[in-house]
Amino acid sequence: MKPRVSLQDSALRNGNFSLRIVPVRSQDVGLYKARVKYGTEVHSCHVELGVITVTLSPPGPVIENELLLMSCNSSHRASLVETCWFHNEHLGPTSRTFCSLSRTLSILHPAMSDAGSWRCQLRYSDKEIISATFNLQILGFDGPTSPVVYAAAGSAAQ
Predict the structure, then answer these.
(1) For a FRET experiment, which of 11, 22, 54, 127 has its CA 20 to 30 Å from that of 84?
(2) Which sign, positive or negative, has the C-alpha torsion 136, 137, 141, 144?
(3) Count of domains in the chain?
(4) In 3D, which of 55, 64, 56, 53 has the Cα closest to residue 114?
(5) pTM score, two decimals?
(6) Is residue 41 part of a domain?
(7) Is residue 57 located within the same domain as residue 123?
(8) How many CA atoms within 13 Å lie on the side-chain side of 136?
(9) Do 27 and 74 have their domain in common?
(10) CA dihedral 100, 105, 111, 114 (to 10 degrees)
(11) Rounded to 5 degrees, what are φ and ψ at 28?
(12) Residue 72 and residue 36 share a domain
């Protein structure tokens, strides 16, 4: 897993033997075991790493008005009860929420207003709730609704 994995050497002296993985990949899912010996003392811990991913279909840049599918998947083993998608949830009146049994959100004609922060939240039968945030960028025209723009002669126009 090198060079994505590191230990904080300075933290080891204080009893912190945390493992840092950047970036986490889907194949990193599993059980991690640590064993530290200090003098005559031996300490160990087990941590299970689960991964959640948000994928776009089609992959690549999202084009305004072209069908977009956003999927949310997790390595959690319990039965999925509900998937909720939250768009710009802390930005006032433009925030939106969509909930369903499907892991996939379809946006038939994405607009510039669909860009921004999306959070998918997966709720499972064992009461576990897992979420991930994705920043959606859309390529398109974010200008006046009328294609005619007037500018004074001698001034600048954008």
Answers:
(1) 22
(2) positive
(3) 2
(4) 64
(5) 0.74
(6) yes
(7) yes
(8) 32
(9) no
(10) 70
(11) -80, -5
(12) no
* DSSP summary character for residue 39: T
State the residue range of the domain holding 68: 52-139
Task: Kindly state whether residues 122 and 76 are assigned to the same domain.
Answer: yes
pLDDT digits (tens, 9 = 90+) for 93-125: 666 788 888 899 999 999 988 999 999 999 999
45-103 pLDDT, tens digit per residue, is 899 999 999 999 998 889 999 999 999 999 999 999 999 999 987 656 666 788 888 89
Give the 3-state secondary structure of residue 146.
Answer: coil
Q: C-alpha distances in angstroms, 134 versus 117, 122, 128, 140? A: 6, 14, 20, 19
Distance CA 147, CA 150 (A): 10
Residue corresponding to tokens 């997790």: 74
User: What is the Rg, in whole angstroms, of the alpha carbon atoms belonging to the chain?
Assistant: 23
